Amino acid sequence: AQSVTQLDSHVSVSEGTPVLLRCNYSSSYSPSLFWYVQHPNKGLQLLLKYTSAATLVKGINGFEAEFKKSETSFHLTKPSAHMSDAAEYFCVVSDSSSASKIIFGSGTRLSIRP
Amino acid sequence: NAGVMQNPRHLVRRRGQEARLRCSPMKGHSHVYWYRQLPEEGLKFMVYLQKENIIDESGMPKERFSAEFPKEGPSILRIQQVVRGDSAAYFCASSPPRAGGRSSYNEQFFGPGTRLTVL
Over the stretch B45-61, which tens digit does the pLDDT of each residue have? Predict the structure, then answer.
């Protein structure tokens, strides 16, 4: 069965410094992987997705993630944090065998210090 | 093109009452998904529907919960005889008809959610 683990429940960085949100996955098939962002009291927005093309995926708002099969990881990074990046981030996996169902990680809350 | 619409945004019910949550998918989308988010947790899949059909309800509680997506009108998630443990945010997502066959993934677009509080 597929699963996804977000290693940090809360990450705090200073504005202008790099962001790293960690995600490890487990899947018996070739996975599709996604990062979603949820701002307070808002719905979820897709940041980026990996679907077996390039392993380095660029998303919106300067975020990117790298798929590393050997490490079963899909960490989210951004070179320079902005105050507006403060939100909840979810790593998500979808198995190709059951594309109707996607599995969410427990989320990482990103705080930005001025 | 309006996004996924959910209403109401906030719903308060007393124990034992019924809750009805509505979801209007994006224009042209024929697939609807419902998720539940408990405080401090990620979203948990509940049910996947196409027009007039339930495709996958493996995440739905066996009792009191039901979902439909009629030929006309929004998708409805219905919770009968609500209990305090049903308090959560319920998100709906929609996706277009699957282009690449059963195994291809179609991006899901999420609504703003309905926050249900059971007193």
Answer: 999 999 889 998 989 99
